[in-house]
Amino acid sequence: MKNIFAEATISESIPCDFGIYDLNQFLNGIALHQNPELNFENVSYLTIVGGALVSKYYFSDPSVIVSPPEKEVVLPTEDVCFELSSDQLEKLIKASSVHQVYDLSAIGDGETISLKVWDKENSTSNEFSIPVGKTDSVFTFNFRVENLKILPGKYEVVISRHNFSRFRHCTLDLLYYIALEPDSSFN
Question: Is there a contact between 106 and 137 (Cβ–Cβ < 8 Å)?
């Protein structure tokens, strides 16, 4: 969908380039194994070995992979900043599932920044909100909860009024750039 881009520095050495079509599927496949070892001997797939368990993960054709930009990603403006704890993120995602609402909005009312999960198309939908900071601005920045498939942890979040955001993991060398929904507003 070209609405999420992640950038990470890892300590492991990977001996070859290969395409992953569905990162969640790939990571969940690795998580099936305890202490997995990855074997890159085949040019078409990698073998994941954990004890007696073995999985094959076939590489994706590079032509179906959307490649990241060659240059550093820079937000056009940094209009809203706050920290999001691992517990807050977990509660928002759980509340989205419990209430079956899939919109997440960062809302500034001139005093408080709140994150709210709700159905923005239904004024009587269930909702859940958490205050995450202070602001003197008025805004509503909208995300889809499904776009927040990010590793657990504490994040420094920066949102640009140009429908773009950056989530920087506070302990890992990990950045996510997530597009906002087009109906977001900043006054």
Answer: no
Q: Quick count: other Cβ atoms within 10 Å of Cβ 118?
A: 21
Task: State the CB neighbour count (10 A cutoff) for residue 15.
Answer: 8
Find the farthest-apart pair of alpha carbons in the chain and give their distance in angstroms, rounded.
58
The pTM is what? 0.84
Give the pLDDT mean for 127-154. Answer: 95
Domains present along the chain, CATH in parentheses = 17-64 (no CATH), 80-186 (3.70.10.10)
pLDDT at 63: 86
Could you tell me the two tokens for 166?
């950056």
Structure tokens at 134: 């202070």
Reference 75, options 175, 144, 186; nearest CA is 175
Q: CA-based Rg of the chain, rounded to a whole angstrom?
A: 19
DSSP 46: E
- Predicted confidence at residue 1, as pLDDT, reads 60
The HSE-up count of residue 56 (CA atoms within 13 Å, CB side) is: 6
Q: Say whether pLDDT at 172 is over 70.
A: yes
Residue 97 neighbours by CB under 8 Å, 6+ apart: none
Q: What is the mean pLDDT of residues 59-88?
A: 90
